[in-house]
Amino acid sequence: MKQYYYPFLLLASFVLASCGYYEPIDDIEEDNNSILKNESDYFDFSTKSKTNVTIDYGPLGANALIEFFDEFPEQLDADSVPVITGEPFFAGFADADGVLSASITLPSHVSDLWIHTSQYGLPSYVEAKVEDNRISFTNQETKATTRSAATRTVKNPQVWLKNSEYNVYTINPWNDRYGTPIDDNGIISEGTVTSQTIHAIQKALWGGQNQKPQKVFNDKFLSPVLGVINTEIKSEGINNQGQTVRYESAEVWMTFLSEGAWNQNTLGYYIYNTDNPPKSRYEAAKLKKFIIFPNTSVAGHVPFEQTNPSANNVKRFPKALAPCKPNTRVQLLYVDDEGNVSTQFPAGCSIGYFLVSRPEKTGLPLNSIYSIDFKNIVYSDGALNSNKKTLTVSFMTPDGLAIYGFEDDPGVDTSYEDVLFTIEATPKESIYNPERKILDYKTTGIYGQSVEYSTYMFEDLWPNQGDYDMNDVIVAFNRHILFDSKNNATKITDSFTPTQPQGSAGHTNAFAFVNSTIMACNPSVECSEGIMQDLSGAFVIFTNTNVQRGQTATITYTFETGKGPSKLNLSQYDDAFIIANTKDPMKGNRTEVHSPGFKPTSLADKSLNGTNEDAYYRTKDGNYPFSMQIADRNITPVSEGISIELEYTLFADWVRSKGATNGNWYKCHNRFQQ
Predict the structure, then answer these.
(1) How far is the C-alpha of 500 from the C-alpha of 474, rounded, in Å?
(2) Would you give the distance in Å from CA 164 to the centre of its chain?
(3) Is the CB of residue 411 less than 8 Å from the CB of residue 391?
(4) Does the CA dihedral 31-1-591-105 come out positive or negative?
(5) Helix and strand element counts for the chain (H, E)
(6) pTM of the model
(7) In the predicted model, what is the mean pLDDT of the chain?
(8) Which of 397, 449, 385, 406 is nearest to 424 (CA)?
(9) First and final CA of the chain: distance in angstroms?
(10) Of 157, 456, 490, 579, which one is least surrounded by beta carbons within 10 A?
């Protein structure tokens, strides 16, 4: 704010910087700088832009929480568990058809992004581009029309020996390095598990939430009873009419639902006499085992996410090469002691399941004999595992569909969603087990949460000429939004922290904030001590930003169910301003400094607007604003008395182009050297 000004045009040299050269910006406007033109003739200095978003996941994406990141967000923590690092710059729910369609405000520098969702059956990550202010993605796999999975006759089925040492066969051959099944037996079809069932499974394993917790613990779903874990083919059951029906055999199908693993997992089953189950790992090794899916990896999940290597030394493959698809149905095959293959499982036998994990870093092709390490096989029966732990949970839907979840790494995360599948039979009563836990369809509510942030920067000499270092008042702003499946906010918490350098302003400046959209919804409001609401409706957050530098103040708005504002529109109406050079910011006729595009409040001295250097809160030559909202946090302040474009060397070109180029100028700071 200092009362002197360093005209940058007197500097004879350019600044060579990593982000570009310094260029003078006095040539932007050649007209008479003293003339006040129409507001629309000036650059608005906005670092955000309207973007039309259309994301279509199809029925499996119903009510999916969709997040947008400007860089790949998933990393491994100290326990080698994948976690989301960083925060999305936007998040919102798809509708009941799996579509998110909105006009949202995004940082203007974002051109390449990652679309993320944890919803079962959907790709975790999708790369996308912002083109012509549009983001568009349609997931073709989940948009396909579901085919009927009717029972069909399988003629002369066969199995193929894969590993004689561990008695491993496969019911589907494969010949590529990734493990894509080849349906030589005619036993693969598209599944018919509904999106409602898949989402109910998801909420059961996520504790009723619609947004996946960072770490999930579901040991409470474990069962110590073998018959509840595995699938028994019974000789009799109770049909829908309450009658006892006897069976000699049953046909069995597995439907692969989804996966949430970093490892590439091989999934299969083994068969044993119900009355004589294997009692040790040694006995299990002698049983015939049958691979169903050589690799349960799906498109959009690690490692089939992208074409180039990425973080954590994880080998990445193109999404198009993913070997498995959600909601894929496979009829299981029975092999008797003589090696005869049939689709009929005789009553009195049971089916157990196994998983073999190979780390995502493994580069060996799956058609290599060394690529699947069967000595690390994990069984659904915990007694057969080397650590004696059960790594499988099982549910039953009310209509008799059995659901299984495998954990491939019993470390600090026991989600049991690394591989998810269902088992069904004809007749369905032949595998019904009344002791199996019924899936709880109740939820704790569908909601999401996201964090938005920005930085407000001010010159306090308005409407007079300033030094345009934009550091007289700097306030870091964070907004945490809790919202429902309709994208209506249920609770908003705004926090503000002055971060300008010590001594950057000689004036006593107050900081205030307005959001008419929020207040129009009549929320209950809770404020930090010291926050006051003035007669214009604005909240005066800080009465003296020099003294209150480094302090954080919050405003929390809580809304009645269904009456909160749409989170898609919130950032479009934010208005932060300073009340310059005042000891009593609550009084009228005050000096308010707003960002371009915003209007003074009813308490402002409006006679100052358009005088001296002012043109709607920017200079008449169009070169500088008196206030800006930067779509980023942790902005490095400009040195005192140094015009902003001398240390942010892309700023000049951004202004000259009226925002068309160098939208990321605020990410390229270079300390100016005279």
Answers:
(1) 5
(2) 43
(3) no
(4) positive
(5) 7, 40
(6) 0.79
(7) 85
(8) 397
(9) 20
(10) 157
